[in-house]
Amino acid sequence: MAQSAERLVGRDADLETLTSLVGLVGPDGSARPGGGRHVLLAGDAGVGKTRILRELRGRAAADGRQALVGHCLDFGDSAEAYLPFTEILDSITTALPDVVAQVADVHPGLLRMAPVARALGGADTAVQEALDRGNLFAAIHALLEHAAEKAPVLVVVEDTHWADQSTRDLLTFLFTRPFDGPVTIVASYRADDLHRRHPLRRQLAEWSRLPSVERFHLGRLSDDDVRVLVAELAGDPDAGIDVESVVRRADGNAFFVEELVQAAGADELPWDLADLLLIRLEQLDATAREVVDTASAAGRDVSDELLEAVAGLDRPTLDAGLRQAIERAILVPREDGYYVFRHALLGEAVYDDLLPGERVRLHQRYVQALSGDLATGSAAGLARHARLAGDHETALRAGIAAGDEAAAAGGPDEASQHYQQAIAQLAGRAGSGQDTQRLVDLVVKASDAMVAAGHADRAGKLAREQRESLPADAPGLWRAQLMTVEIETSFAYVNDVSVRALADAAVAELPEDAPPLVRARLLAAYARALMIYRRYDDAERAGREALALAEELGRTGLAAEVAATLAGSWGRPPQDWIEPLREAVARAAKVGALHPELRARIQLGFALDAADRLDEAGENYRCAFELGVKRGVPWAPYAFDARIAWLDHLHITGRWDEALALTDAYGIPSALWPWLESKRLMIEQARGADVGAEARRLRPSWKQEVATASESAPVEIRAAAARGDIDGAIEAYDAGVTALTVGWGKWFGVRARLSAIAVGAIAGAIPALPVGERPDVMAEVDRIIGQGTRPAGSKQPWGLEGQAWSARLRAEGLRAHWLAGVSVPEQDDLIEAWRETVAAFEAFPHVHELAWSRVRLAEVLRAGGDTAGARELADQARAAAKLLGAQPLLDHLLTLGTTPQRSAAGPSSQLTAREAEILALVAAGRSNGEIGKQLFISTKTVSVHVSNILAKLGASGRTEAAAIGRRRGLVD
């Protein structure tokens, strides 16, 4: 009886679709339309994903393509970083060694992934910079590009439902970075394995949104196809197989069909698939069953060398057992000397059928074999076997080695996972002082990995918890090490840590004979903290010592980090930072220290901003943002900061569509999303969307990232004022100020802007207030003005942005008093204040705020009779509003009455737009003087309009006019 079908049954249409998607030519030699896309191949376990991919690879080879295959394995919590790409790199190394050497010359990190470098005990754990995986991602991309120069490349990654986090991140990088050459990736996964919290679910949703990626689901076979497949498998039509029973029981699953046909001679077939698979094992003799059992404990595949060492059989006996397992289609030999179960489900069934004691003993034998002189296996594999064997000491030692191995290969997620398991083991036993020192070192390693993986908050909390659990008489060195991690991570996320006090305490705890690297890291963090608190001389001294130690130790990344701190000394004028920071950027780039380079670029952008070189600053932010994306770390602290800064530049310069595109970011960590969301809401509100409630929902995130308040609080303020809720606007302002004061200190940089926005929003709502309530509101306005006005004698220079918002605050304050009729300013003072504001926003070219400032000046000029000047300003504002799509601004310009409008045909009794506006205010009980102040027109002009309204409506007075207006629907 045949064990598997030679012909692919029931998949012709699926294969044609898949072939077309990846851009292969058809059997007739014609090119497929719409090809060259990456494909996510989904399907239930056993449905035939591997079989159709094997056929696809065959077609690729016939088409002259290179087909590279990598497999993900179910290692559970002993994940090995980049496992499928290690296999792919091995294939390219064998076929194209010159290409690998060429890429490795430019990207040395590539060699960290090579199988020989990752063999058990082969990882170089000395270089913590290896945790920067940006170079590794770029290396894999470059490798595939160079390989594609030889021939088009088809990359197949199977079973991504078992993929480690680093592999998933690398796939994201490859999917989002276009290839110049013909490179196509197909990733398969079990759709039925993706439970709600499966880590692949979110990334599948992200990948599916990319224009370069197509999702394709491989369905079950039809009943007719199952009948054909049964005939193919049985071979002999007289085999006595109940075909219809197979059709009914298999439910279109190809693997299930094969097993049912194979077991057709059994007396009674079970309905459960696992039990059905075990029928195949009953056909093996004792030796073959022992071989298969031994292989199942290894996982999906096992090398010949390791299997021989663990099985304990002489070579002829082992070969006989292997031959029988292969003939029965349980194991399949690979060209690289490994044996793999024909289907993962089969291996799982074999392992699950073992008795608990059998499993433990098998894992013990694997530990013994892998702890010997074998050149196969990995630390992660040894850790897994030791843990399942109950060998805690070996599991601890191998787990640490696995973390070092993952770190050296640029897999921070997997490294932190292994380290945390080891920490849990050490913390759970009453250890010696040596164990505690080992634990402290592990916490530092785990924290480095967490930070590299984008989880600085978790790293800081881990270090703090371990420090607080140290005994009272613990050596100062341990406390200093853990405090260093807390300080470093505090720079990356908002928390309640007093960095200044912690830094001083850490330096006090550090012994004179501390290891040089520990001293260098602490002094580097200390220097940065001192810069923040303006202790510039102390910061320089600490930084210089840290830099010397880092250079002496060959820690190029740490040296670049310290250089960035020293270059951005806040004790000098901003223009004096620029050249030192350019040198710091170049230094970090030269040694491939990505995060110090990003940080130096961000600081350079800030310096350029402070020096009023805004276009240069924007270009610098763009370069930093694109560098983070290119290197596969778009959400790393400084890469994300660059995205925010570049988004702000686009917003200020009026490129709103580009700015909004940056807010639609897939894969963003949940902790960062609110900040980006607040930027989106700000632009959407300016275009007319009612997003006040959405902004309010961001308040809980202010504690995690206080910068969110600087954008979402203004959105709340404007939304509240727009609905006439002045109390709500004031409450939103106060809440924002409180949050920002806690996070940034008493005088934070955006205080003038927040106050100007609040005063302007409240001013717009004042005319609708009863006269008696206005003094109390103006008292609040004056308080806000006082809080936003820069203290006299401030030493820091005020940049263009600060000057613009300070001018705006003064002008909005005068406008509020004008509209309220409380301490009314002279019109000349009001005009002058708004002229200064317009000039300030012309210097600081915020397109939207400049347009609004021009509108306010136009209103004042019109009230004073300068209609020509008002019209010119309004026309300039209208042009900007149309460019931005700022509908509220356009609507306001219509009420201003300076828009040229087509004459309306109709009876003379029809009210003009201005008359309808004045009628609404009359109905609200406003006097002519109040209406004039609100609309910035003279009282005499209002009186003329009111007379016209009474005549057109045939009303004898204001009350009757209001009633007629309501009756006719002219007034709400």
Descriptive overview:
The chain has 972 residues and is mainly α. Among the domains are: 12-219, P-loop containing nucleotide triphosphate hydrolases (Rossmann fold); 224-269; 281-377, Arc Repressor Mutant, subunit A (Orthogonal Bundle); 679-896, Serine Threonine Protein Phosphatase 5, Tetratricopeptide repeat, CATH 1.25.40; 913-967, Arc Repressor Mutant, subunit A. Helices cover 63% and strands 4% of the residues. Strand 3 (153-158), helix 6 (165-176) and strand 4 form a beta-alpha-beta unit. Helix 13 crosses helix 16 (356-370), helix 30 (637-652) runs antiparallel to helix 31 and helix 37 runs antiparallel to helix 38. The model is unreliable at 121-128 and 898-908 (pLDDT under 50). Keywords: ATP-binding, Nucleotide-binding. This is HTH luxR-type domain-containing protein. Residues 904-969 form the HTH luxR-type domain. Pfam families: AAA_16, GerE.
